[in-house]
Design a protein that fits this description.
Oligomer: single chain
Protein name: Transcriptional regulator
Number of strands: 5
CATH topology of the largest domain: Beta-Lactamase
Pfam families: HTH_31 (PF13560), MLTR_LBD (PF17765)
Distance between the termini: 56 Å
Number of domains: 2
CATH architecture of the largest domain: 2-Layer Sandwich
Shape: elongated
Mean pLDDT: 90
Strand content: 5-15%
Organism: Streptomyces cirratus
Order of helices and strands: HHHHHHEEHHHHHEEHEH
InterPro entries: Cro/C1-type_HTH, Lambda_DNA-bd_dom_sf, MLTR_LBD
Structural class: alpha+beta
């Protein structure tokens, strides 16, 4: 492919980030003239320049490979299968992390919300979910929002659904992913369950000023969680870059007590 192709891609990322050529040049130690020449194909960027611009534009690792190939270079970042021996230490570390978080729920998902690992806290919450949703590969968004999944038990479904769809929308805007877009279209079309808002006095009231809680029933008990998502810092592999660890922190003492009594 020609350098014009990489220039067009870089321009798309720059516009998407809302950064001017002058601002990008300042961040990358270049000049706005050179950035302009790269974008319009008059200058062929070096491999180092492509990577530097991608870094300052916060381009996802997978898309950095696309930029490199478009500029005539080999991909820099591997895409190692998660079950490959090279990632054995990573898998072991994730399993230890999830286990240490018990009895509180925690899971690991990939870029399209496929569940790659989960602890027993998550397994407890999935009790009663339709079997077809639990057949591999499990998808966290599908399980959460499907009418035969967790949705009927989520007390603040409208708010939580809006939060999840907005999260997916932001990801789609940042990266070209047809599988993610297809998932978004699928789950956003699910009908809403009858229940849509928490009743007065439920745990969501106490945490609403801190963060939007997930308020969900389990075995007749109303549980409230605050979600936290972590990713790996400066990953050099596409697979690792696209992993996200989500932990559900009890949002009130009653939830923490219930999980400790019901957990392993």
């Amino acid at each position: 492919m020609t350098s014009a192709s990489v220039g067009a891609l870089l321009r798309t990322w720059r516009v998407r980030r809302g950064i001017s050529q002058l601002e990008l040049a300042g961040r990358a130690g270049s000049s706005s003239r050179h950035i302009s020449f790269v974008e319009n194909g008059r200058s062929r960027p070096s491999e180092e320049m492509v990577l530097r611009l991608a870094e300052h534009l916060d381009v996802p690792v997978r898309e950095r490979n696309v930029l490199l190939v478009a500029a005539g270079f080999a991909p820099r970042y591997a895409c190692t299968p998660l079950d490959a021996p090279e990632l054995g230490v990573l898998r072991e570390g994730l399993e230890r992390l999830l286990g240490a978080y018990e009895p509180y729920p925690a899971l690991v998902v990939d870029a399209t919300y496929q569940v790659v690992a989960a602890n027993r806290g998550i397994a407890m919450l999935l009790e009663g979910v339709a079997e077809h949703l639990l057949a591999p590969p499990l998808n966290a968004m599908r399980i959460t929002l499907h009418p035969q999944g967790l949705a009927p038990r989520i007390r603040n479904l409208r708010e939580w659904r809006a939060h999840l769809l907005a999260q997916m929308g932001r990801q789609i805007a940042l990266a070209r992913s047809e599988p993610l877009r297809a998932l978004y279209e699928e789950v956003s079309a699910y009908p809403l369950a009858e229940r849509g808002r928490p009743d007065e006095g439920e745990p969501a009231e106490a945490t609403s000023l801190i963060a939007l809680p997930l308020v969900i029933e389990h075995a007749g008990q109303v549980l409230s969680f605050v979600s936290s998502i972590s990713t790996f810092n400066t990953p050099m592999d596409v697979t690792v870059a696209e992993l996200a660890i989500e932990t559900l922190l009890p949002a009130d003492p009653a939830t923490a007590k219930y999980l400790r009594s019901a957990g392993p």
